[in-house]
Design goal:
The chain is mostly helical and 414 residues long. It is 63% helix and 0% strand. Helix 3 (55-84) packs antiparallel against helix 4 (91-124), helix 3 packs parallel to helix 5 (132-141) and helix 4 (91-124) packs parallel to helix 6. The longest helix is centred in the C-terminal third of the chain and has 36 residues, at 378-413.
């Protein structure tokens, strides 16, 4: 391997460096080179800590942590489709169908988002930002498995360009790019990205996939199986009439807490399985990549607000649902583990991280309960707190300054 790298450094690298034939394409060369090996540039001064784990390696660790969600999401998308459309559901058929539904979405996200990243890198003459490795994967995992590819392309382009690049790229954006793209699709195309029918899909809408799998085209009068719910647990809870036990409504729709924890239910590609998310969380905590302060304070905030709604006298069915249901339903765990912990758009101070995460959990439950038109909540909560994160850090720092000033004055008087 060293022999190949030596040849690359001697004959290929000069073509992309300043004055070389392909100087304008240096960001592409640098991205591929640093992806396969640690960059040769190191700090010279003694105050700096040298570590082989650079930013690109950290982003790759997040992709590793997302792997359980990706694999489970592929299987679940195929499983939900096959069950709803009356097709024999086996592990292999579920994986095959799910792969043909999910992988094109992921590929489109990386392709279009990568083009945007490379374009800005070439124009600005800087390196390709490593953060796209994560944003390009997080964005499709927040979508329904039936999302049209043109919407995937439009959403990721919006998230990268408007959510990140116009601020100056990684390190300057105030909003999470993946969530920015997801929010854009939600508000621009609400009929196509929300509701009950988008989570499963129909044989009539997948003629190419049907042909690949050798499944006959449905007849003109074909209908999906009756009695198979396409709604998500959040939608069922939000739609429960006042005074009715929301847990009973979930049960009548075929949902229970165990099923929501396992994740074999309708929902976004990567956010249905709490178990898969916890596997990723364990890896992130072991490697020290994610902030445990944000994650656990976020869970505490959601639990606190859920308990508070349980105590308050109200006939709102969603407000009376047990607090731990909020942790298992929808994309809360996925959002608090993989989205809220974005090191750029989150709070940076230790105390700020606790406040930031706690308020995300609180706002998520408030939005879910108080706004029946938007029962999810976690996306808007994170984006709102992204905007508030600099202010939180400012007051934390000012508090430290005042405390040290007070301590210094006390020493002077002594």
């Amino acid at each position: 391997m060293k022999f190949l790298f030596d040849l690359q450094d001697k004959y290929i690298k000069p073509l992309f460096e300043k004055g070389g034939k392909f100087e304008n394409l240096y960001p592409l060369f640098e991205a591929g080179d640093t992806f396969t090996r640690t960059p040769p540039d190191v700090t010279k001064g003694s105050p700096h800590v040298r570590d082989s784990i650079d930013q690109k390696r950290l982003m790759v660790y997040v992709i590793y942590a997302l792997t359980p969600c990706i694999l489970f999401g592929i299987w679940n998308a195929g499983n939900q489709f096959n069950i709803h459309n009356g097709i024999e559901s086996t592990f292999s058929s579920d994986i095959l169908r799910g792969s043909l539904m999910v992988l094109p979405i992921i590929f489109t996200s990386y392709l279009v988002g990568g083009i945007c990243e490379v374009g800005f890198a070439i124009i600005r003459k800087h390196e390709i930002n490593e953060g796209f490795l994560v944003s390009g994967m997080l964005f499709p995992l927040t979508l329904a498995p039936t999302t049209p590819l043109w919407q995937v392309a439009l959403g990721i382009a919006f998230g990268i360009i408007i959510g990140k690049e116009i601020f100056g790229g990684v390190g300057y954006n105030i909003l999470n790019p993946a969530l920015t793209g997801r929010a854009f699709l939600f508000f621009a195309y609400p009929a196509q990205i929300s509701g009950d029918t988008v989570w499963v899909g129909s044989l009539k809408d997948t003629p190419i996939v049907n042909k690949i799998l050798g499944i006959a085209e449905p007849s003109a009068g074909w209908q999906a199986l009756d009695g198979v719910t396409m709604a998500t647990p959040l939608a069922v809870s939000a739609a429960a009439e006042n005074g009715i036990n929301a847990v009973n409504s979930l049960s009548m729709s075929g949902f229970n807490l165990a099923g929501m924890v396992i994740g074999n239910i309708s929902g976004s590609i990567g956010s249905t399985s709490v178990i898969a998310i916890l596997l990723g969380l364990g890896f992130l905590l072991l490697t020290g990549v994610a902030s445990n302060k944000i994650i656990f304070s976020g869970i505490a905030g959601a639990a606190f607000m859920g308990l508070l709604f349980n105590i308050l006298p109200t006939d709102n069915s969603f407000a009376n649902i047990p607090f731990y249901y909020h942790l298992a339903m929808g994309g809360f765990m996925f959002g608090i583990v993989f989205m809220a912990t974005d090191p750029v758009s989150a709070a940076a101070t230790d105390k700020g991280k606790i406040v930031y995460g706690f308020l995300i959990g609180v706002l998520t439950v408030i939005i879910r309960v108080a706004n029946p038109a938007y029962p999810e909540g976690i996306m808007l909560a994170i984006l709102f707190m992204n905007v508030m994160a600099p202010m939180i850090d400012h007051y934390v720092v000012q508090g430290h300054i005042k405390q040290r000033t007070k301590y210094a004055r006390a020493l002077n008087h002594a």
